[in-house]
Input
Amino acid sequence: MLSRTAENLFWLGRYMERAESTARIIGMGARMAMMPGRGGHDEEWRSVAAATGCAGQLSDVEEVDQRDIVRTLILDRENPSSILSAIGRARENGRAVRTALTTPMWEALNDTWLKIRDIDEDAIQRNLSGHLDWVRERCALFLGAAEATHLRNDGYDFYRLGTFIERADLTLRLLDVKYFVLLPETEVVGGGRDHHQWTSLLHATSSQRAYHHVYRGDYSPWRIADFLILNRNSPRSLAFCYDRLSEHLDRLGRGYGVRHKCHLTTNEYVAILEDQDMGEIFQTGLHEFLSASIARNNRLSGEIAEAYLF
Output
């Protein structure tokens, strides 16, 4: 496969996952903003910007509200983390490799772009949750089309590598924002506000029912972090993402007859996650673990690009 095609498919996977992830994060912020606060909801909305890596774009705003978030994280065409920008860039990458996509994949992607490119800000403000649900449904439609119709070849592997790199990044950032940015004042740790913020992470990853199936009614921060980091059966956990990254890289290694630094990095981290438990992670520092994992995930993305020349 041409390196340019591999790059387009990799970033197609990243941008589609980013669009869905951003919709999930904004929905989480909206849920948290509904809770009685300490005088406003600036903290919750800033946490949303921080989770998407866009905190700097709102640093000059005195008090961030929903309208600021909609403009920056949904409608800003110049912001690569906004929903509109992510879907537009995904469509550009998809169009560049049109023959590498199946017809259902292209139709799902192109129709989504045609409907979202002229989206109305006032309509979003009036029905934010409805528009976020629509974005998630369209991204799920594209994913379903890919899973049902794409050949399991190297193109599929590059597309899924982008998906799981982006998904792992989201999970890590969500946890880090909750633990480090939203860490509540001492008197409310473990209280209703803190509990609501932690359970909002499960809603943001559509994991509440799956979590209940595993841990029943124990919604402690310890268990939620364990579910989103180490549970290998949870499709949005860090461990699950790295298991899939390892599988797709191994397929490429066998198919091309050569292994690279990215293969070693991935397999080493899979082994580390297998040996970890949440007691060790909390003892050494959850924030430190998450920061190191975000850096490792970014490095892996660069190693994949270097290995396959894009």
